[in-house]
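thread: overnight batch results

M.L. [08:02]
morning all. the overnight job finished for the chain we discussed friday. pasting input first so we're all looking at the same thing
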Amino acid sequence: MVFKKMLSAFGVGGPSVDTVLTNPNTRPGLTLDGQVNLVGGDAEAAIEQVVIGLVTRVEVEGHDTEYAGTMEFHRMAVSGPLKLAPKQQLSIPFQLPVPWETPITDVYGQRLHGMTMGLRTELAIARAVDKSDLDQVAVHPLPVHERILEAFQRLGFRFKHADLERGHIRGVQQTLPFYQEIEFFASPQYASTIREVELTFVTSQRGVEVILECDKRGGFLSAGHDAFGRFQVSHADVDRVDWAQVVDGWLRETTTRYGSLRSQYGASHGHRGGHGMGGMVAGAALGVAGGMIAGDMIGDAFEGDFGGDFGGDE
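M.L. [08:03]
and the structure it wrote out:
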């Protein structure tokens, strides 16, 4: 009996958890629907709480160090305390709101190279090791995101990579403690002035703040540098404008008004120098449930599942 109790404490013969999503595909501002299926173990179990949370991989920069960690950035309890009888089957339905700022992971049905996203289910069991389950999630762009990404492709930009950087962009209202960078190689028509462009969306119910970081080439008497631009768009503008023309205007404005932007962002805070948003980032924001876990837990869990690339070579 003592041995059986000890095994139970380590999860052997204890209850199991399996989360089933109605549809693993979603968009910022929508929901993820599904149910958590519990099956009792060899003995009655006291479940303290059942919690689901969105997790993703985030790049973290410190003092001369950089590493990728796993962050839970949004969580919700789907059940409080309950008793689970031996072999009892119990299904708990849920509807998880997806934050507006949730990063995009899939475009045109293809996984953005560098992006991972999962829904983690935690089963807290009294006096025992917590059980967990992890399910892959795909976050697709909203219409305004799609139009802007299509515009970059129409202008000849090639997708390079996407990742999440921990921190806040100065002057931008953010609710999540990280931001997404979608990187493009410059197209031939811009190659004389720009090497690469990093695109960031900070989305809300009202619209999207678009942040551009252009890796600008140096001239005969000047060194290369990064140029930043910030632009506001409304969800209602989706079908009202020529997005290729709009994005072209953004790029030209960003690269020609570098001096004023540098005085705003770069003079007192420095600028990028190769990693992240540099001067625009106002420090890392903590205070998110779950925090960071060093390592590539999600990558290991989903290894082999992430295929495809969006619009270009790495």
